[in-house]
Amino acid sequence: MRKLFTLLFILFFPLITFGEESIKIKAEEISYQENFILAEGKVKLEYQDIKVWADKIRLNLKKNLIQAEGDIFFQKGNQQIKCEYLLYNYQSGKGEVKKLKEGKIPPWFWKGEKLILFSPEKLLLLRGEFTTCERRPPHYHFTASQMEIYPEDRIWAKNVVFYLGKLPLFYLPFYNAPLKPKPYGLVVWAGSSNRKGVSILSHYNWYLNPCWRGRIYLDWIQKRGQGGGMDVDYYHQGKGYLYAYYFKEKEKFYTEYEEDESGAREGKDRLERWKIYAREHIVRDNQTFAFRWEKLSDPNFNRDFYFEEKKKGWDTPPLRREPETYLFWERNQPFSLAGILFRVRNNYFEEVVEEKPTFYLSLPYLPVGNSYYSLDGEISYLSTEPIGDSGARILTHQELAYPLTFAKGEFIPSLFLKTDFYSSGEKNSLKGRVTPGVKTQFSTIYRYPYSHFYYLLQPRLSLLFQPAPSIDQDNLPYYEDRDRLSREEILNLSLINLWEGEDRVLEWDLNGDWDLEEKECVAITSDLRGKISPSRYLSLYFLYSPPTENIDFLTLAINTEKDKWETRINYHFFREKKEENIGFRWKWHPSSLWNLQWENRYNIRYSFMEESRIEVEKVLHCWVGKFSLRWEKKEGRKGEFQFLISFRIRGI
What we know:
Layout: H1 2-12, E1 15-18, E2 21-26, E3 29-33, E4 36-47, E5 50-60, E6 65-76, E7 79-89, E8 95-98, E9 102-105, E10 108-118, E11 123-131, E12 140-150, E13 154-164, E14 167-178, E15 185-193, E16 197-209, E17 212-221, E18 225-235, E19 239-249, H2 251-257, E20 272-284, E21 287-296, H3 301-304, H4 306-311, H5 316-320, E22 326-333, E23 336-343, E24 354-368, E25 371-383, E26 390-401, E27 404-406, E28 409-423, E29 431-444, E30 446-449, E31 453-466, E32 488-501, E33 504-515, E34 520-533, E35 536-545, E36 550-561, E37 565-574, E38 579-591, E39 594-603, E40 608-620, E41 623-632, E42 640-649
Antiparallel strand pairs: 1-2, 2-4, 3-4, 4-5, 5-6, 6-7, 7-8, 7-9, 9-10, 10-11, 11-12, 12-13, 13-14, 15-16, 15-42, 16-17, 17-18, 18-19, 19-20, 20-21, 21-22, 22-23, 23-24, 24-25, 25-26, 26-28, 27-28, 28-29, 29-31, 30-31, 31-32, 32-33, 33-34, 34-35, 35-36, 36-37, 37-38, 38-39, 39-40, 40-41, ...
């Protein structure tokens, strides 16, 4: 009779409902008495995001308590606990755990001799262990006298010892580990090269909270020297970054590789290499504040430490461009933009026009009847240190446009006026000039829908006439290219073509500029990009100069992407900088455990391999191993062969 009652209870009373909430219970035997439910044998309880498996559960509906015994598995969200006794208030989220076996908040596993506080905000353990390794026993683990676990945030531990297997390696008085999978912790690259010898590049990623994190660097290069530094990423009212690095170079390395090259360092500090970099960007209430400060020990720092800084996560553009130091603030309103800019020379080797300061104002789109008026103006105090020239510059550009629309096209005639004033710093040296001009623009759009694809053509024709300025440039101070005005009669024709079909999109922009005074085409540019098949992407850009019958710039890239691999072939040519190379990159991702990459860049102009790199990454349970083999050569320098091996612990 009891078994029959139990079966009927399971079939017809699987939900105990109170208010708008419900608890689901399944078990071999269930009994109900007033505000108590007793479940025994393979019990499973569910309530909201809480799940409990146990041998025995006693549910107190009046006090909102779950009392579980036996082999218990508790889960709330991504938090899991294995124990032998659990007392839990499912309303407050607080409870008590005895005979703790293991807890988990991915990617961390943890356990302790005693769990003395169990709440949604904090778990407090005594004499605990934690690791990200799934093996039992783990490949590595930390022990701590006390652990504070803040779910969804971090683990704070005191008196921490790091073990590799059963071997203790080091002690830390405090340790802070994030509970979200981030690549934090100690990362060491070890390898060798024919030029630098044995290298050990290491950094420790520290994490305070989501708004403050960074790295500490310590590097040793056998033939070159040793160095160290740190960086900080922070988010307060805006986004900021600080970086500082110092390297003490060896005299022998300097003498062999750098002493005879152009721009070699001199003096007693020539072996001390360093870099300081800071930036901040804040956007708030239609206002933008930003600054960048870069100071380097010498002009070749970015070049000489390019590989090491790439390993630190620096992008290629900042390492190839010249350093910049500026500060600006601007306010953006619907019909106006105003700001102030300071640009200074911060390094002895820089050749920049300093702006101390520049005030600028822009009224980009003001309706005046059926016309539109725009104004751009700036007032600058300029300096060309160390040459020594200084003075003021006032530039304005005003334009009045009257758009006319018809059928499928638009015609926009406009008048503009440029006024430039310059002062060289001498008494009564203010000089100026006025340059009026005319612009017209005509554009239209043709659309051709077909059954399998769609085609759009947008031709645009514009004409610019600007007479010679009232005062010749030779009679004015000259600071930058934009200060040199001349007579212009330019006709521009552009064609925008768009093809769009099934799994294919192709856009082609073609531009041509004609000098009407010289009666010749001066420049043709073409920009082609798009998806040419379900797995292939194409981009092509070139700049052609008809007067010299030369292509001045050309870049071509073809990408192929499949489920587990990707290839890229690219060609680059830049006549002014005498650059011409072809590159190939292949990536293969056969599974979640493997990543392979092979990359080559060949210098066509001088017939040598600029760079060749092979990288293999393998996930090894709680470790990630990476092998890198690299060859690099630069014009006028010996080639360098280097290999590096690194292991890092996942999730810390």
